[in-house]
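ping. complex inputs:
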Amino acid sequence: MAARAGRGADAASAQTGDPNLWDRVENASARRVLQAALVSFSERGYHATTTRRISQRADLSPTAMYAHYRSKMDLLVVISEIGHAAVLEAVDAAIADGTDTTDRVRRLVRTFTAWHARNHTVARVLQYEMRTIPAERFGPIRALRRDTEARLRDLLRAGIAESVFAIGDLEVATVSILSMGIDVARWYDGEPDPTALADAQSELVMRMIAVPNQERSEIG
Amino acid sequence: MAARAGRGADAASAQTGDPNLWDRVENASARRVLQAALVSFSERGYHATTTRRISQRADLSPTAMYAHYRSKMDLLVVISEIGHAAVLEAVDAAIADGTDTTDRVRRLVRTFTAWHARNHTVARVLQYEMRTIPAERFGPIRALRRDTEARLRDLLRAGIAESVFAIGDLEVATVSILSMGIDVARWYDGEPDPTALADAQSELVMRMIAVPNQERSEIG
Amino acid sequence: MAARAGRGADAASAQTGDPNLWDRVENASARRVLQAALVSFSERGYHATTTRRISQRADLSPTAMYAHYRSKMDLLVVISEIGHAAVLEAVDAAIADGTDTTDRVRRLVRTFTAWHARNHTVARVLQYEMRTIPAERFGPIRALRRDTEARLRDLLRAGIAESVFAIGDLEVATVSILSMGIDVARWYDGEPDPTALADAQSELVMRMIAVPNQERSEIG
Amino acid sequence: MAARAGRGADAASAQTGDPNLWDRVENASARRVLQAALVSFSERGYHATTTRRISQRADLSPTAMYAHYRSKMDLLVVISEIGHAAVLEAVDAAIADGTDTTDRVRRLVRTFTAWHARNHTVARVLQYEMRTIPAERFGPIRALRRDTEARLRDLLRAGIAESVFAIGDLEVATVSILSMGIDVARWYDGEPDPTALADAQSELVMRMIAVPNQERSEIG
DNA sequence: GATGAATGAGGATTCATTCAT
DNA sequence: TATGAATGAATCCTCATTCAT
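pong. complex structure:
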């Protein structure tokens, strides 16, 4: 069984993305269960994943997961919370490194895209199983998503104010830029290299929002 | 239940998008079943949709669908085939109307985006349940997707050759542009107006790929 | 489809045994349905046979059988009645041809065995689906079976009285002799030739019941 | 329901024959399920038996059987394998006890018949549901049946070589003798006593195959 | 913490049969 | 006579979860 071979940290990380993501889950069994769930949810979707499959992939008995999680939905919620928090953290770190608005947007997009490529397994769960999470548990996730989106929107708005960006419809621009990164989760399977992809997409985005050369030179 | 009220053609089309889409399903019951499945698949996903729900929404007995479709999976496949075919048709029609490469790309993007907004219910099924379709039935769908993607790629390539587009990475550009339209299915819920959205997105795309003004003026 | 090829009388009789058996069913469609049911009941059993299968094999629509028979059970009952009646008729004809008790028993056994070989398709239904027929419809069939058994028992009793047979337990002998013929339905698949099999089995039976040579010569 | 009353070992064995037969099924629930299935398969046939009935008769929830068996078919296969193995074991034990060929045949027949009377519930399943078992699982059962048949055939052949048996057609004799025992499963319902029946049938068989007195005295 | 057995709810699907045509 | 559509009942089985150990 592949799961058996993949029990080690390295093999697993190939499927589950950045290994540090799951560091906060301290118990080893609990982490294995979570990663097994993650891979299955990503491959087949939440409803098509059985708790037995998860357990098998984690090399545990069918009921072992209940020692660590209250339910299958719990697994999805935890994965989703960790994932969404990680995206926001990455985005915030990227912004912090930026020197000016243009640079910050470029870094944000590059990071966002690279994250979705590198962590496309988690990303798929975040995006495709959002609707699966019941309203009463969705609150924190919604907040994280809104915050992430707000980071970009605020930068775009700032750039417009600074006259470095020319954007017709701020909302459409915000969501469209994020779409390019989010949708990476759907099609990405290792190619191209996350960094290369991130560079290419961020370049496209910058051209999309930049004030056209002529006008800028006129202004400058 | 809302479904009961929605049995009429108009109410249903509000949920199922362009009513002509389902014209090719001639039997009225078969069409109602298909539309009921469509709405449920879109709202809750394939696996979370029960055949009973579908039948109920179609105002038929729990087993009536089996007179028209061999299985629940059949419904998904038919929906997916019709939907993907419709996208390609729309794209082809848009291209045919264009006057030059730039115009054709703009029309393609506008149409693609508008289609995904107007038919976001179907579009959600097309994008989110692709992995659910078993390999042996996926062939025709894959072909349609590849063709649709090829339409854009070919136009971009032509524009580069004509020096009206400046694109660093053709593949990334192709998929990123489509991502903006595809991802509309995820977030769209009636706002903004499909035409307005299509105009805004196509404008973003055109700026993204157009040769910068300066250079172009140099050439002209 | 094999059924289509086998629609003619000759091909069908290969599977359904003596074609005259079904002559009394005058309507051609009704007869085709009956023979289709017969073959399926024999091959897979009554409960594993669907009415759709029967109709298909008879080259008719799934509901066509209801024009001729009230239910699936009706088919089984009719087949069973015709079959059991035919066995008794054959046995009676065999007895009628016999010259003395010994000859009559030999002819009865030979005929009984040959019938089960030649009509093993029907015979299998008669024997294996007996318990399937509900009590309220089983009366006539029970009568036919009792009569057939009585024919042999009476002959054996007569032979004992005439001192041509030496039999310890009349009941066990009766049923055991019939078992040899009945069980042919279970294993027979065309080999050996029904006549050869009938000769061999009847010889075994005659030795089984005949007064031993020594004693007979003493008596004579 | 009678099943509830029959939960005790003794009551069950009245229906399921030799209780030792099921000893190899160690888990008590699994054994109860198996015996419940056995009785139902025997009474109504495999296809007419629902898994619910089996569970009810075993005093378990409708799904409890799935903890022990993978499917309803699994139950049939296990029953069939255990049953056929038991027949062969009984036959082998009988042969081992014999002093010469004639004695061995007599013992074989007596044992075979008595087994089918005593275990007529299992025997009915073995004989009537053979065709129900799919080819890919039938291998071991076919082997057991062939072995059992070979035991008799080999003895008959030996007896012919030793001139203690006079048999026209070895194959017909082999199958006909077994038929007498097998068919007991069809009609037996407690009468006569298995031993008495076995004695009567074995006597019939011995007369059927023995070299006639006269000839034998000539030889001796 | 971990497990094997057990369970209730529900799932897709099949089936014999009916009905309108 | 024949059919396509429709249906209610039932079937096998799966699933997430619980419980005793």
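Residues 1-11, 216-220 of chain D have pLDDT under 50 and may be disordered.
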